Amino acid sequence: MRRFSKAWCRSSRHFLFAGLLVSALPQRARCQSQTSPLPDAPQVSSEGKEEASDAVSLRNTPRNLLKDQEAIWTSPTRLNESNAVGPVLLVLATTAAVTTDHQVMSSSKVVNTSLNNQASTASTGLMGGFIAAPAILYGLGAIHHDEHATSTGILGGEAILDSLAVSEVAKLISLRERPTVDNAKGRFFQTSVGTDSSFPSNHSMIAWSSAAVIASEYQGALTQITAYGLAAGVSAARVLARQHFPSDVLVGSAVGWMIGRYVVHKHRHDD
Q: Is residue 49 part of a domain?
């Protein structure tokens, strides 16, 4: 008990960063839809032009990415009692995970070179599939004149780029050591880490953002199970590869999922 309390106190000073990252998430479209005009309300020409500029297309993607990042990083200012439950729960879960990270990554069951190498290969391969999926959907949509597939591919790519941007900024701030460094102590704010920060997991964030878009656009049970199941596989493999702590993949998975959902609902106006 004394050891657990000591670990809790030692890691608690790092949770403020986790809380800021978790809170810096796009709000659900439900909040936006309450203030948006009715679907059949007449639109003036200026609004029509603005809507056209936000349409799902390759041409508009750079502009949409900038708007996404603005929404993501300013979203803490829009937290209230109705939408803060998710971020708060994630912060609490991350807090609990950080306190046990060292014990998990020091286990003899995880410290296994053969297992680590196989898991690393699997996680990279699966992530590559999630990166390729939007491109494949876009290509098939273009070939078969399927606008839904084409736009899903564009949204998937947008969500991946949004996630990558958020993840890289978070890594530069957190500067967390990898599990393979200093007996898996997982210390934050270590300048020696440089650009190889462990928190959060890029693989997990990219996989879950892509999976969220695909699962939101194609809502069949098999698609849902496959997309989220493979994304969960990426997250688990990063831990088994000893490339990330459980808290790294927890935050990466959750933030990636939220970003993917946000990108879809922002364009589809469908909650």
A: no
